Amino acid sequence: METESEPYIRLSTLRRLHQVVADLNTARSLADTLQAVADGVISGLGFELSAVNLVRPDGDLVVAAVGGSAGAEALMAGRVGSRCSWERRLSMGERWGDLRFIPYSEGWVLDDDDVPQWHTTGPAPRFPDEWHPMDRLFAPLHAAGASGGELIGVLSVDKPRNGRHPGAWGREALQMYAFHAAVAIGNARLRGNMQRALLRLEREQQALRASEESFRQAFEYAPSGMAIAEMGGDQHGRLLRTNDALCRLLGRPASAMRRFSFSDLVHPEDIGTLLRTSAEGGRAELRLARRDGSYVWVSLRNSVVADAADGPRFLLTHVEDIEERKRHELQLAHRASHDSLTGLPNSAELRARLAARLCATPPRPGGGYEGGGAPDGGVAGAGGVYVDAAGHLHGFDEFEFFGTPPPVETAPFDGHVHTVPPNEDSDVDDGHKGLAVLFCDLDGFKSINDRFGHHAGDAVLIEVARRLTNGVREGDTVARLGGDEFVVLADGLGRADAADLAVRLRNAIIPPIRVDGRAVRVGASFGIGWAGCGMSAEEVLHSADQRMYIEKRSRSKERRRAG
């Protein structure tokens, strides 16, 4: 099972990976892009050395960029390795998906070939996954990012900072980065060709026809979408010309595309992003409508093509399909915030959702705060609002201040509605509704693990998660805290409502669960806590946990066990 820290580590890795991939698309030239690829391995993937080996027109590979070590750069930059030596390396060792790993025990045969390298000898590894100085790890770079495409280079990495072989997560991150690096190198080459073609159009009037043909070839046969749009006049923004790649991406013929502008095709939520990009030039990520009504994520890069005499003439737009990257980002974010076994929100996500409902100021039911009046030196008003000392307007849940409301028309409302727990000191339910936190611990689960194995235990946890999810309302949260502990967040419940919900969920868990042809049963103990502003998420969970143990001890072992 995952440790509690792994979601944070994965989310941090995802953020760094997202940043370095974004940096690849900001480089202005092919050389800058190659150096950004090498530096991104160092800053985003946890290695201390990297090199980009680029395929030359004659087929051999030249070291085009080195990251992480000035000494390695001086030793290797500009040196060439033959194609046959590289093909030998990529056919050896272990296949980690698209990656190639050659352990030191096999790589000694490569010491004398002509491929530039910085490896040094060292002692044998002390444990199985320790990185050895002679270990080699390569990520092939293929045209358009596809593993079956033409080889355009090889990314070499060395010296992981943790001193270990990359795990499944690190390998997946390196493969994803190599995919985007190959696309970025291809796009840099394409942009270089386009810029040279446009420069020739301005400087070589006598070669205008040849330059226009070069531009047409680059435009029409670009692997990613390209468009030319009008600037200024009554037809501002109208698409004048689109290439086959863009037409295929949006499922529309070129004749139909000429009736639209990008503002007609963009998702309503992205129109502001499009207008800023169209006015200023630059790059944006947004969604465009396909012919079937669905939307596709694209990266738009606008270049304003100007005439020296008349000013801006038209927009040249490069449209790259990033749907797959966005899908991977969402998957990685989901895996970082959800339990891999049950699919429920994990401990980190639970605490984040709970913390979002809380603030540091504890309200007092019935009209005010401890010490009287409004919190933090603020001014109390009517209608469930107050103005704090900084002049911000707040709201209250289920109580209000009394008195003459001050003039608060100019105070900004920060959107936070205070969470107030019910009064548990009274035996009478006053009908107050709050945010209930139900802490659930399974009874008899350990014996199932011991008797039938962890496979049976996992099946029980998955089924319990399903039953809990089916037993709550839409909008409530069911999370797995870890082991056999679950937590339910249910807003808008009174004390009696929360008790009834705990009974219903316990009764939903008790029926037998079929695992590998046998019926097993577990029970459940519930503790009901209440979230309130002034408490931290840890305090709320600790309170519910303690009440669960009180409830568990109040019943005999025979009554707790359900099977």
From TrEMBL:
Stretches assigned to coiled coil: 187-214
Source species: Streptomyces rugosispiralis
Domain PAC: 282-334
Enzyme class per UniProt: transferase
PANTHER family found in the cross-reference section: BIOFILM ARCHITECTURE MAINTENANCE PROTEIN MBAA, DIGUANYLATE CYCLASE DGCP
Gene Ontology molecular function: any one: diguanylate cyclase activity
E.C. number: 2.7.7.65
Pfam families named in the record: GAF, GGDEF, PAS_3
Protein name as catalogued: Diguanylate cyclase CdgB
Domain PAS: 211-293
Domain spans labelled GGDEF: 433-563
